Amino acid sequence: MAEGFADFPVGAPLGGYTSRCRCFGDAGRYDGRRSNYHTRFNPSIGVQTQPKIVALWLENGAQDLVVLKTDAIYTFEGMVNAVEKRLSAATGRNLAGRVTLAANHSHSAPANWDQGLTWYLGGDRFNREIFERAVESMTSVALEAWNTRQPAAIGLGQVKDWDPLDRVYSDRRGDNDGVQFFDDIPAGRYKDPYLSVLRVDTAAGAPIGMFFAFGMHGTVAGDDNQLWSVESSGHVEAAVEERFGERVVVGYLQHGGGDASPRGVDRLFSRMESLGEFAADAIHELWSNTQTSSNPIRLETVTRSIDTSRDAIKVEREHDVLVYATFDPSDEFMPDNIVYDEQGRLLTPIDEFNTDAGGAFCGSEVPLLAGANLGASVFPYDSCVEVRLISGLIGAFFSIPNVQIPLPESLRAKVSATRLGPIPILTHTGDVVTDDLLLAFFPGETTAVYTEQFRRRAATTLGMQYTLPVGYSQDHVGYLLTPEDWLLGGYEPNINIWGPLQGEHIMEGLLTAAAEVLTTNRLEEHDPTGAYADPVYPEEALPQLAPDLTPDAGTALSELPSYFLMPLEGLETAIMPPSEVRRVQDIAQFMWIGGDPGVDLPVVFLEIQATDGSWEEVRTAAGRPLASPGHDMILSTTPEPLAPAAALQTHYWWVAWQAVSHVHDRAGLPEGNYRLRVEGKKYVGGATTWPWPTESYTLASPSFAVVPAEISLSLAANVLTGSLDAHPAGFRLIDIAGDSHGANPVRNATIRVTYAEGPDMTIVPLAEAVVGGRTQWTLPEGALTGAVAITVEDPAGNAGMLTLE
Which parts of 91-228 are beta strand (E)? Predict the structure, then answer.
């Protein structure tokens, strides 16, 4: 296994919210800047967390499986194919159909690498350089996994209902609460209840890494956020990493997250961190309980591009095979507008979905475009808009002439399935069995009912009881729902093209492929007849928009620029840290002239001064450097002038670090002298397309002393209240019961009372409680008689004193 970061430029647009497009809301536009990397979406301005890539490479001699996870809104089949070809060339092994790519569904990660016109509304027009940089990053991490492979042991663990209080994730789809889809699951709120851990150890039992999986959207940050973020699941990853005392590779995969929202507490980035606090212990416990084995395994993967053209779509039901009625292009056509038979079953053929190009925005109570539906007058078909019409508008928005209809990306859907085993499996009932595991990779937003339907159909049609469904993988077709769920309307049916049957048709295609290939004793070639080829997209050239030459890159600023976009509300910009920085309560800033974002994504390391005067990198408990790709710092840039991008611009870079430990003992960062050290790159010229030749620069901020925080104290009768008050522009989680912008509890404090006469005394409170983010101690009666001061100090030395009259 291996991990790394995606190589994107700041200025690339973030995916997931169509409202970030200047054609649909213009959200996240704070100034008039332009970059080389966006078209109609607003450009990103900086980084809270850099998109991470995790790779698992399994090889049993005869077969390979490469599982890649990246932090992105969705995946693209063309990216999978490109990685396959590069890995095959680099290793000499035929990896066709053996590479899987899954996204964590972050709504705050660069996304304009998908060539499908449908998804231009999800992340801007396709940019070849962004695509190539993503592919190169994934290939590099996968090859590191290949080059470090060793004899290994593997196992699976699963639990159900592991988040009963919805502290981590919750069902967001209320439209289907009134329907009982399965005899043993009552109607009502329902989220995918499974947590899965795929554990990988050395043959001797030492941890190599793990993938964990559950379903959760990456939507803590809204459409106005323009800082990159690995979002909700990425912060759970970071928390799980730190449950180990060493560097262990950790990656997240989606189960049924299409209709699941993140929960947590606090706000924005601190809320993301709180999800890690709520989830990490359960995930690590499941990992601890999961057994692994190094016994030989069978390993085989089948990958197919499923035909999703209108007339190929069908879904099996006990009473019939559901299909669409033959398309009728005549103006006189009228559907019968009857959806269910007398027993409440779906009628077939379905004549309400009368379109040869597909329908979008189905399921809304109010149609997006009145009079542009498919001719049906029954819900939810009455709100569908012809894709033929929408695609023309998209083509106009993004200056794409001659849009092909039907859209090529809508005619195929890439799926993969892997049979792996026998391996030890900890079942959700607590039993341990040795059996095969079916990994299933679905090209869209798998929902809770959908994943449950898949688990049941895999058991009945394949005889495979143990599955790990992975959504947001291999490609993207929108939301994946069962027909019965799609027909209830709501938001999710808005975002797929081929109506109620599309989702389960894709599931059936995966199950058919698994039955034909994975249940035999033969090891078959990938698609030997070419029957399952992906759509062919036009070859687009790399942009010839060279970065700026920045000879002054690496120069610390001596005065503030005339304009800089501050990404933290309520924080005054500073060019360097103060001489003292209080834990929790202060934010150290540093500014410099850097390289063009086309080549420069500076890494900023936190360093501490050793007793001999040398500087050492601060590291987390798991051994990772505390640096700007992680959530400990905010990094951003502003060009001068803001526009046009073709102008010669000076690029001002800014970093902020709040004096909070990475995950453990957040308010107890060691005292000492610190500094911020920057490693960056600048363009040296000589190229017309990416990759751009560069040279490195480095610089460091002035040093500063980290000192204890001040505890705020107040007294009412015999109740003493104390808090660690965070910076009002704070972006770090301080305490799960506190506020990143306000009061936070004081934990395990010592209370000492100073008397006018007599010695100081340590007071043991009668009771202690956290109320409104503050700690309240009830002091014994008479404890304050004759007292002149109260001092409260926590184990880290953060302290406060209250003088009494």
Answer: 99-103, 152-160, 169-171, 194-202, 207-214, 227-228
CA–CA separation, 732 vs 588, rounded Å? 13
The mean pLDDT of the chain is 96
CA distance 689 to 474: 28
- If one looks up domain 711-803 in CATH, what number appears? 2.60.40
pTM score, two decimals? 0.96
Q: What is the pLDDT of residue 392?
A: 86
At 605, the amino acid letter reads: F
Residue 68's Cβ-side half-sphere holds a number of Cα atoms within 13 Å equal to: 37
For residue 160, report the phi and psi dihedrals to the nearest 5 degrees: -120, 155
Residue 308: phi and psi, rounded to 5, are -115, 25
Cα 775 to Cα 39: distance, rounded to the nearest angstrom: 51
Sign of the Cα torsion 551, 554, 560, 565 reads positive
| Those residues with Cβ within 8 angstroms of residue 805's Cβ, 6 or more apart along the chain or in another chain | none
pLDDT in tens, 192-233: 999 999 999 999 999 999 999 999 999 999 999 999 999 999
8 A C-beta contact, residue 27 and residue 19: yes
**Start and end residues for every CATH 2.60.40.2300 domain found in the chain:** 555-707
Query: 249-276: per-residue pLDDT in tens?
Result: 999 999 999 999 999 999 999 999 999 9
Q: Is the peptide bond prior to 422 cis by the omega test (within 30 degrees of 0)?
A: yes
Burial 535-573 (b: 16+ CB within 10 A, else e): bebeeeeebebbbbebeebbeebeeeeeebbbbbeebee
* Structure-block tokens of residue 34: 């332009």
Task: Identify the architecture of domain 555-707 in CATH.
Answer: Sandwich (2.60)
Q: Which amino acid is at 175?
A: D
Cβ pair 479, 492 in contact under 8 A: yes
Cis check for the bond before 629: say yes or no (omega within 30 of 0).
no
Cα 540 to Cα 82: distance, rounded to the nearest angstrom = 14
When computed from its CA atoms, the radius of gyration of the chain, rounded to whole angstroms, is 28
